[in-house]
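The authors assume throughout that readers already know how a fold can be written as discrete tokens. Each protein is reduced to its one-letter sequence and a matching series of backbone shape codes. I therefore recommend that a typical entry be quoted early in the introduction. For illustration, here is how one protein appears when written out as sequence plus structure tokens:
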Amino acid sequence: MELQTKALHAGYEKDSQGTMAVPIYMTTAYEFRDSEHAANLFSLKELGNIYTRLNNPTTDVFEKRFAELEGGEAAIATSSGMSATFFAIANSAEAGDNIVCAKQLYGGSVTLMSHTLKRFGIEARFFDVQNPESIEVLIDNKTKVIFFESLTNPSIDVADIEVITNIANKHGILSIVDNTVATPIICRPFEHGADICVHSASKYTTGQGLAIGGILVERKGLVEKLKANPRYAHFNEPDASYHGLVYVDVPLPPFTLRTRLSLLRDIGAVSSPFNSWLFIQGLEHLSLRMREHSNNALQLAGFLESHPKVLKVNYPGLKSNSNYENGQKYFTNGLCSGLLSFEVASLQEAKKIVDATELYSLVVNIGDSKSIITHPASTTHQQLSQEELIACGVPSGLIRISCGLESVNDLITDMKQALEK
């Protein structure tokens, strides 16, 4: 099946009522047939529902459907994109380990890597996504993850996925790609060697800013990379917290299985059934929306590139952009998502333009059906130093736009008056 068909049908077999829409199973727990059934579920002799912190029928459909879209083997839905990112790293590394991350990341990811994980004893080492060859000098025998975004937010760089994942595979290290901005409609990291994909479902997946959530997807065949790999002893040795289970010996996808049985169980950052249902609705028309977001963004980027007040436009759909070649290589049908950024002369000028827009909403989100404008240096990346801002591609005069689904003529007209006011 093609992606649009999977987005409508994957992961759901109609219930006894023949319900066309996936039902919302708003329940905390599930009744067992008898004590033997309960024991079998907890020992994994049978698979089934135990408690909604671990699994839920509505969330199960969302996970299966998203895994199909990404081309993965299994997925875990979480309470936010940040929890999906945290789980992906916590499932790979422990105190004393290090991770190698792109400098060009969402501001919340930068602080997670630089500060929060440091308190867990995990060191973050950073590379320039425009120079992935620099990764190798950062790797040692304690490196557990190479983390990057397929399309960076807000610098709008396109990662050379194959170069990065080849380095990861050479050293037997897990590669984790945040594919939020591109979505699986536009970019398929597993086809280029990635091991794990994470997403903030709060963005394009829901599409209307209705719900907070995240998802983690495991590629097919990842067990072979984990098996007997000395970097990941916790997948190859008995888990004392779960009856001595050895994850690579179970006929289930090991990375998502351990995320569910260890991290979801113990930390509990789980998607609510209602939010999972909202994400399912969003997936049904995700491919249609991504085409319109991308088309609008390309036309707006072209207008901005021609305006004398604009110093630089970051959008890989522009032939003049340094990321154009990678965009053509890794993105489907020339689509480049709805996120773009542009630079003006100063922080004061950037704020003036943001405040002068009328159709764009000043919001720290992306992927909404309504267009959003943000000044990252004073909002999403405010916690970073000037040196860190420059390193992750966020100069003080940078303005980020999440191009919505309005008429692009109206979006251009409003931006023109804001630039010239």
Observations:
- The CA atoms of residues 316 and 324 lie 5 Å apart.
